[in-house]
Design goal:
- With 405 residues, the protein is of the alpha+beta class.
- It has 14 helices and ten strands.
- It has a five-stranded antiparallel beta sheet, sandwiched between helices. A three-stranded antiparallel beta sheet has the order 6-8-9.
- It is globular.
- Bound molecules: 5-S-methyl-5-thio-alpha-D-ribofuranose and magnesium ion.
- 5-S-methyl-5-thio-alpha-D-ribofuranose is lined by residues 41-43, 67, 69, 73, 175-176, 179, 234, 351.
C-alpha cells in the first residue's frame, strides 16, 4: 500500500515521494530535489521537480476536481487520461512537436512528462513581441498530420470510431459549448466580463444581433455533431511552448472528435490577439510578422493538407474526383467561423487573454476589443468566402481600420 493508491490533490511536499515511487531511478537516491508549482492555466496543477546538482528535471501535471479558475466549476479528472493518451498518439503522427509523456497515473490523475523549461510559453513570448520564424511551418505540420490522420478519409473506420469513443469528453466539451458558443452572445450565466467603455458596443454588436445569434447557434451544433477529426480542442498560444528552433504543443485536455476548423481557427484568433498587444506597444515589425504568419498558417495548412491527403487517403469514396477540394473548402469555412467565435469569446467571455487585458492604455484596449469583434463578425457571417491566408489577414486589417485602431 502506498499513499498514492488513493486520489488526493498533491502539494509541493508530496512530489519527491511521488516521483521516486512512479519513476524509480530517474533521480539518484540521494539527490536533493526541489519542487515548484508552476501551473499557469485555468484548470490544473503543474509541478517542476529539479535536481539542481545533476541538472535534471521533470514535470508532473495533476488534474484537480475543481478548476483553478473557479472553485465552483467541477470537471472530471479523466481529462488527465485524455491528455496523456492524445499526446502519446500525436507523438506518432507529429514527432518532435509534442512533449514526451513518460507515464500517466489514472489514480492520482497525473501525467509525468518532459520538462520544456528551455522553451517559453508562446503567449508570453508574443507579449514580449518576439518573432518565431519556424512557427507557421511547425504548427501546420502538426495540424495537417494530427488532424487528417484521425479522419475517416485516412483512418480505418472502426479504428476511428474506437477513438471517438475513447475521447468522448463531455464535461470539457460542455465548457466550450457554454463559454465559446453560448454565453458571449447573451451573457445567460452572468459571467461575461465586458470592458465598461465597450458595454454599449457589445450590447449592439453581440447581444442584440439576431442574425449573428442564428449563425452562432448553427456553429455550436456543428461543434457538437461534426466528429471529423481528433482535435487538440484548446489550441491557443497558452497551449504552445516555443523557442527559436522548436515548437511543442501541449495541454490537449479538451481533446475530442470535432471539426478541424476549431483548432486552426484558434491559432489564427490567438495570433490576432498578439497583434492587438503589439500594435498597442508600437511594435510594427512584430505586428507585420504576426499577420504574415497568420496568412502562412492558412496557406501552408492547405498545401500540407493536400499533400498528406494524396499520400494517405484510404477511403474509396474519398478518392472521388473533386471530393478533397469540397472537403478542404468546408474546413476553411469552419476555420473562419471558429476564428470568429474565439475572437469574440476571449473578448467578452469569462476566460480572456492577457495579450488584450494587459494593454496598458485604456483607449487602445477598447479599440483592440472592437477590432476583434468586427473581425469576428466578418469571419462568422461571411465564412464561406474565406479561402486563403490573405482573406483572413484582410478581414483583420479591415476590422482594425473600422474600429479606428
Ligand atoms: C473554465 S476553463 C476556461 C478556459 O480555459 C481553457 O484553457 C479553455 O480555453 C477554457 O475555455
Ligand atoms: Mg489549457
Amino acid at each position: 500500500m502506498s499513499r498514492f493508491d488513493t486520489y488526493f490533490l498533491m502539494k509541493e511536499a508530496d512530489l519527491p515521494g511521488y516521483i521516486r515511487e512512479k519513476m524509480p531511478g530517474y533521480f539518484a537516491a540521494d539527490a536533493a530535489l526541489t519542487v515548484k508549482e508552476i501551473g499557469d492555466g485555468n484548470l490544473n496543477y503543474v509541478f517542476r521537480i529539479i535536481d539542481e546538482e545533476a541538472g535534471k528535471s521533470i514535470i508532473v501535471k495533476q488534474a484537480g476536481e475543481a478548476l483553478r479558475i473557479s472553485a465552483e466549476m467541477k470537471v472530471s479528472t479523466d481529462r488527465n487520461r485524455i491528455e496523456s493518451e492524445i499526446l502519446l498518439l500525436q507523438d506518432k503522427y507529429a514527432p518532435g512537436l509534442v512533449p514526451k509523456i513518460f507515464r500517466y497515473d489514472t489514480v492520482i490523475c497525473a501525467c509525468i512528462m518532459e520538462d520544456l523549461s528551455d522553451h517559453t510559453l508562446m503567449r508570453y513570448a508574443l507579449m514580449e513581441h518576439r518573432i518565431f520564424p519556424k512557427f507557421a511551418g511547425d504548427i501546420t505540420t502538426y495540424m495537417a498530420a494530427t488532424l487528417l490522420a484521425t479522419t475517416d478519409a485516412v483512418m480505418e473506420h472502426k479504428a476511428k470510431k474506437a477513438l471517438v469513443k475513447s475521447f468522448i469528453n463531455p464535461e470539457l466539451c460542455e465548457i466550450t459549448e457554454d463559454l465559446v458558443y453560448t454565453e458571449p452572445y447573451n451573457d445567460v450565466n452572468k459571467r461575461n466580463i465586458v470592458t465598461p467603455e465597450n458595454a454599449d458596443f457589445v450590447k449592439k454588436e453581440l447581444y442584440e444581433d439576431k442574425a449573428l445569434h442564428l449563425e452562432a447557434a448553427k456553429l455550436k451544433f456543428d461543434f457538437m455533431n461534426n466528429a471529423q477529426a481528433l482535435l487538440h480542442g484548446d489550441l491557443h498560444t497558452g497551449s504552445i511552448f516555443v523557442k527559436e528552433d522548436s515548437t511543442k504543443v501541449f495541454d490537449p485536455e479538451f481533446a475530442f472528435y470535432g471539426p478541424m476548423g476549431y483548432d486552426i481557427g484558434n491559432i489564427i484568433a490567438n495570433l490576432f490577439f498578439a497583434w492587438d498587444n503589439g500594435h498597442a506597444a508600437g511594435a510594427q515589425e512584430f505586428c507585420a510578422w504576426v499577420l504574415k504568419t497568420a496568412g502562412e498558417v492558412i496557406d501552408l495548412f492547405k498545401k500540407k493538407f493536400l499533400d498528406y491527403y494524396k499520400d494517405h487517403v484510404t477511403d474509396y469514396m474519398a478518392k472521388t474526383e473533386g471530393f478533397v477540394e469540397w472537403y478542404l473548402a468546408a474546413i476553411l469555412t469552419d476555420t473562419a467561423a471558429c476564428t470568429g467565435v474565439e475572437l469574440i469569446r476571449r473578448t467578452v467571455g469569462m476566460a480572456q487573454v492577457k495579450d488584450v487585458t494587459t494593454i496598458p492604455d485604456r483607449q487602445k484596449r477598447v479599440l483592440a476589443e472592437r477590432t476583434n469583434i468586427y473581425c469576428a463578425k466578418d469571419c462568422i457571417m461571411n465564412r464561406t468566402k474565406f479561402r486563403t491566408g490573405e482573406d483572413f489577414v484582410e478581414s483583420f486589417k479591415n476590422a482594425a481600420k473600422k474600429a479606428g485602431y
